[in-house]
Predict the structure.
Amino acid sequence: MAGCRPDYFPVVLAVVEAACDPAFNLHGQSGTTNAASPLVILNGPVRQRLGVNCAAGVFGPGYRANATIGRALRLVMINLGGTRAGEVSMSTMGHPGRYTYCIGEYEERSPWEPLHVERGFDGPDSTVTLFSGESPLMINDHLSRAAPQLVASLGWSAAGIWNHKSFPLYGHTLFVIGPEHARTLGDERWSKQDVRQFLYETIRRPVRDLAPGPDGAETGRLKNLLEGRGPDERVPKFPSPEEILIVVAGGTAGRFSAVVPGWMGGELGSRPVTRRIEET
């Protein structure tokens, strides 16, 4: 029903297996009032073999593999899991990725090892990684030419995700770095870990800006987090460097990147899951 070709089946099978991993918590993100949806990230030779888009318009239409592999998972969720809007699926807004949400990493344009190698697989392996994410937020930076400037720009553009007082976030965040931005970082020999650490240490706000008040601060969890901290102590946006994921994707013309806010982390939330695609 999703329009997949027969040779997509091993990928769809790996996607469904990853979604059923308890660490991914498909049930929780399906029933949340948030707008989370499984984002499928493909790595390895399967991208070329099936014609998966990793480049220009990577989040958009025009490629059958991206459109139908993501759609297949959503139809499994609806027809087998009952995640119909207003029933099990209680998202207040939803987002277009709930139709289909599938991209490939542009490994050939990345200065770094690809996502699946970071996560313990071999380069020649074909894998799927599922990330529970909201819709992508586009970051337009045509000015930054040095790595610290660029990473700060990416980070501060992401500082308002969830809301401007969500310091720290509750779980993982995915940065989809465009090839032109990736080249800037690679030319200065910044590793993915350098980017993560810089984001963690730089994107912080002082307690006085986060304290409950008339400009929309939270109470509850944030209030407890701030107790005992001085007004000048700076609180990180991201809970840890390890909870920042980085992939390279998108077109080679235009200095754009994107950030995909994740759903909740911790024991009650979702963690990214990677599975090898077993092809015969």
